[in-house]
Amino acid sequence: MSSYLPAALIASLEGLPGFNRETFERVHTAAEKITSLRVNPAKLKTPEKIQQVLQALSAEGTTKVPWSRDGYYLPARPSFTFDPFFHAGAYYVQEASSMFLEHAVRATVDVSAPLKVLDLCAAPGGKSTLLQSLISPESMLVANEVIKPRAALLADNVTKWGAANVVVTNNDPRDFGGLPGYFDLVVIDAPCSGSGLFRRDPDLVTEWSPENVILCSQRQQRILADVLPALKEDGVLIYSTCSFSREEDEVILDWLADHFELENIALDIPEDWHIVPTVTDKRNCTGYRFYPDRLKGEGLFIACFRKRSGESPRKKKEQRITLLTAKERDKLTPWIQAPADYAYLLHQDDVLILPPVIAAEIALLQQQLYIRKAGVKAGQLGPKELIPDHQLAASTWAADSIPVISLSLAQALLYLRKEDPGITTPVKGWALMQYEGMNLGWAKMLPNRMNNYYPKELRILKEITGR
Ligand code: SAM
């Protein structure tokens, strides 16, 4: 059967566990589009709320992604842009195979413990938002992305997810060398040659070549070698790619086992998930292959290791961070209902809400890394009042006493376009704009009009006719 897949790719996959040329080519030719999303358990707190959001996207119903607590398949792709729930951070549109990270984490790490987690190659944030939903509120996730504009996108998606226990950084993997033995879990969703996404996005095929596979493999080794010192002894490394190529998958596992004191961890996986285990020739490491002709998802490779030796963590220097005075904190009382042990940090004029773990670590992180976002920015502290930030609206910490304006679907879409939704209301001053009980952002209600404070860079640009 002919297909648009490069002959050199197909030839290189022959003999790999689970590879079946005929069904592999057929599923690529059929090019079925699979749509899946993961709901946000911090924002959709009841089964009824989850159903309301899913029902709005798909009247025909949804089915569960077998390896994910919060993942669902939709029968067709709706227009997420025109769904206010999407902008409210009710869910993240994520490819189903990627959600398997949840199973790998639960099998290797005690997620109820307070953890320090690094997602090294994190943009646009699919795995970071998943990790955030898995870890406890006492844990901290550092979500890092080396490419600056992609780090900005990551920060926006983390903001939308609403959690306070995330720090977004914009660093090269080697910068993490300054944090020896620091993290309990390091996830490396490595940049790769991308063959696992060819069914979903056939245009990517033009960028594929055997030479690029080798370059990717070398870069993956560099990234791993750079970041491994930051993993503590007994800490867990989860490595994944969306490439089918042996050089980026099994070869990397053997390379890791050859060069570092890492013990490979095999996972228990139900057979009816149709995920294919693969054992490396040289060092007997087990990894897992996801083929689109065997399961409902795109191509993925994933493997887990435990580190058997470790660099000692550096002694922490005394931390100097400026917390708010009691008087300044009083100005925030009408705005915030964060837990009592959360710290309020003043950074220039901005007030950041930090959970205890981030308050304790931020000075050290700041010495080593370029921090793009930490905790939740409550707003700017002016002489009289707080000017609230979008991050506070998107978080779960905005006070219940703040006036709320409930918008219809049409009004919500106008608001998200940064237009005037034409509301008549007795509310004066700052108000939270909500859709079906979920915060979209801020507006200031003036006697004859409203000022729409939805962030300009997030506004909907697409025309409804262009759905
Ligand atoms: N984990 C992300 C998610 O689930 O949404 C997807 C990550 S994507 C597969 C790989 C990321 O690695 C990209 O965002 C890319 O910009 C970044 N990257 C590219 N070169 C890199 C390098 N040399 N070191 C670290 N990350 C790199």
TrEMBL record:
Q: Which residues bind S-adenosyl-L-methionine?
A: 121-127, 145, 172, 189
Q: Which InterPro entries match?
A: Methyltr_RsmF_N, MeTrfase_RsmB-F_NOP2_cat, MeTrfase_RsmB-F_NOP2_dom, Nol1_Nop2_Fmu_2, RCMT, SAM-dependent_MTases_sf
* One matching Pfam family: Methyltr_RsmF_N
Gene Ontology BP terms = methylation
Q: Which CDD domains match?
A: AdoMet_MTases
User: Highest taxon of the source?
Assistant: Bacteria
Give GO MF terms, alphabetically. methyltransferase activity
Identify the keywords attached in UniProt to this record, alphabetized: Cytoplasm, Methyltransferase, RNA-binding, S-adenosyl-L-methionine, Transferase
Active-site residue list: 242
Any idea where the SAM-dependent MTase RsmB/NOP-type domain is? 25-308
SUPFAM superfamilies (alphabetical): S-adenosyl-L-methionine-dependent methyltransferases (SSF53335)
Q: Gene3D superfamilies from the xrefs?
A: 2.30.130.60, Sun protein, domain 3, Vaccinia Virus protein VP39
Q: Which PANTHER family match?
A: 28S RRNA (CYTOSINE(4447)-C(5))-METHYLTRANSFERASE-RELATED (PTHR22807:SF30), NOP2 YEAST -RELATED NOL1/NOP2/FMU SUN DOMAIN-CONTAINING (PTHR22807)
Q: Which family does it belong to?
A: Belongs to the class I-like SAM-binding methyltransferase superfamily. RsmB/NOP family.
Protein name in the entry: RNA methyltransferase
Q: Which organism is it from?
A: Chitinophaga nivalis
